[in-house]
Design a protein that fits this description.
362 residues, 3 domains, 2% strand, two-stranded antiparallel ribbon, 4 strands, 11 helices
Length: 362
């Protein structure tokens, strides 16, 4: 009898487990479908938490939709009244154009609302980060003193919380609550540092966690971290003082120089307009050339140009000064309203007095 060699398979099929004479179908369960998540809502929730607001994202979205509907309705009614050829008493005549204008203006209003919302949240996040970095050194020094007094690190962090620390005090309270609920101190501190885009805070927390894991003297480590933070702040102040001349020059050119030159240009335009109106120029002179005594730029057009130019100049000047002094553009947004108000006010005042001066000369 001929014997054939046994066929070897690269793998052995696993037999189906039998329970009570029946095949166990538990391993053949269909995979659960992942729940659909909206990225925008997650991102909005993340920004709201970083900004320190206790508002649900769904409520935020409802407010945005309501504001968008109101803005779209107001803009639709405005354009409908302004560009309608005649007013009709029948309301049904305006329903279809109103719907078209509302549909066209809603995306624009929605985009503007989102832009304003994220700008507001981003500025709140920046202000909270600045507030934490300002008091971080003092907090670490108090924590170091508590550790040297014999407290554990979690109790030292808890008893170092003071009301004057503001945002940092609330965050440390959150860390303490997480540790009491069973979360490790290292994990809670890492979550706290990840909430803010602060290199200073992340480096300090990482050094603290490494000190805890290595078993070193935490009190001395915290004291050295606080001293390093204070030295860094002093170096930043010295760097800002060394470039103060550039900031003064930009401020003077924006607030004093630009309004004066624009006011002088406006009065020169008014003088040229009066002179050209009093001169009688024939319509054709010489070889087919035509001249006119009308000035192409009116006073209203020039004022609109001045307002736009001064606003843009003030905006970029505030950003440049913040970048020079603080190293961050976001710090310059508080200078922008002051710059715009000062430049426009000085332009109006200087234009008035220069107008009186040139009026007496003509």
């Amino acid at each position: 009898m001929i014997k054939f060699p046994a066929i070897k398979f690269p793998f052995k099929p696993k037999p189906a487990p039998i329970q009570g004479g029946n095949i166990d179908l538990s391993r053949f369960k269909p995979k659960k479908k992942k729940k659909f998540s909206i990225p925008v809502r997650k991102r909005l929730k993340f920004y709201i938490e970083k900004a320190g607001l206790d508002i649900p994202p769904d409520l935020f979205l409802r407010y945005i939709l309501v504001v968008c509907c109101i803005l779209s309705s107001i803009s639709s009614v405005y354009f409908l009244i302004k560009f309608s050829p005649q007013l009709v008493s029948n309301i049904l005549y305006y329903i279809f154009p109103f719907i078209i204008l509302f549909i066209c203006s809603f995306p624009v209003a929605f985009f503007l609302c989102w832009l304003v919302l994220y700008f507001y949240l981003d500025m709140r996040i920046y202000q909270r980060r600045q507030a934490i970095e300002e008091v971080l050194a003092d907090f670490l020094q108090l924590t170091s003193a508590n550790v040297r007094a014999g407290m554990t690190i979690d109790k030292a962090l808890w008893f170092a919380v003071k009301p004057r620390f503001g945002v940092l005090a609330k965050e440390i309270e959150t860390v303490a609550k997480e540790t009491m609920s069973g979360t490790s101190l290292e994990h809670a501190l890492m979550r706290f540092s990840d909430k803010y885009d602060s290199i200073l805070l992340k480096r300090s927390i990482m050094l603290l966690i490494e000190g805890l894991t290595s078993g070193g003297e935490v009190g001395d480590l915290l004291n050295r971290i606080a001293s390093n933070i204070q030295e860094t702040r002093l170096l930043r102040k010295e760097m800002a003082a060394s470039v103060t001349t550039y900031a003064i020059f930009i401020t003077f050119a924006t607030i004093a120089g630009a309004p004066l030159l624009f006011a002088l240009s406006e009065q020169l335009l008014a003088v040229i307009t009066k002179i050209m109106a009093s001169v009688n120029i024939s319509q054709s002179v010489g070889s087919g050339l035509k001249f006119s005594n009308k000035v192409g730029v009116t006073a209203g057009d020039f004022k609109l140009f001045v307002i736009i130019s001064l606003t843009m100049t003030s905006t970029f000047s505030g950003m440049i000064i913040a970048t020079i002094r603080k190293g961050d553009v976001k710090a310059g947004f508080r200078y922008i309203p002051f710059f715009i108000f000062a430049t426009l006010t000085l332009f109006i005042i200087e234009s008035y007095f220069l107008g009186m001066f040139f009026k007496g000369m003509i």
